[in-house]
Design a protein that fits this description.
Helices cover 75% and strands 0% of the residues. The chain has 102 residues and is an all-alpha fold. The chain is rod-shaped, with a radius of gyration of 21 Å. It starts with a helix and ends with a helix.
C-alpha cells in the first residue's frame, strides 16, 4: 500500500509470475534460434560429430559409430571449434543442447 501511495507500481504475484515465465521462454527461444543459426554453418558430417560429442562420446566411439578414423574425428572436432568459435567439447555439447539436437 505504501508503494502505491507514493506512486510506485505494484504487480500482483500472478502477473509477476506470468511476466517472468514470458521472459524466460523468450530467452530460451532466442538462444535456440541463435544456436540453430550457428549449427547451420556445419556440414551434415560435422553435425553428426557435434551430436555425438553432445552425447558425451569419446573420439574412439565417434570414429567407430561413424565409420571414420580417430584422426578424422579429431579434425572434425577442431573444425567444429573453429567454425562455431568455441573453446572446448563442453561448449559444443551445450550449443547442440540449446539447438534441440538429439
Amino acid at each position: 500500500m505504501r508503494l502505491v501511495a507514493t506512486g510506485e507500481a505494484m504487480l500482483s504475484p500472478g502477473v509477476t509470475r506470468r511476466l517472468l515465465e514470458h521472459l524466460v521462454e523468450g530467452g530460451a527461444h532466442a538462444r535456440r534460434a541463435a544456436s540453430r543459426e550457428l549449427l547451420a554453418r556445419l556440414t551434415d558430417r560435422e553435425r553428426e560429430v557435434a551430436v555425438a560429442v553432445a552425447q558425451g562420446k569419446s573420439n574412439a566411439e565417434i570414429a567407430y559409430e561413424l565409420h571414420m578414423s580417430v584422426a578424422t574425428v579429431k579434425a572434425h572436432v577442431s573444425r567444429l571449434l573453429t567454425k562455431l568459435e568455441l573453446n572446448n567439447r563442453v561448449q559444443i555439447a551445450l550449443l547442440a543442447h540449446d539447438a534441440g539436437l538429439p
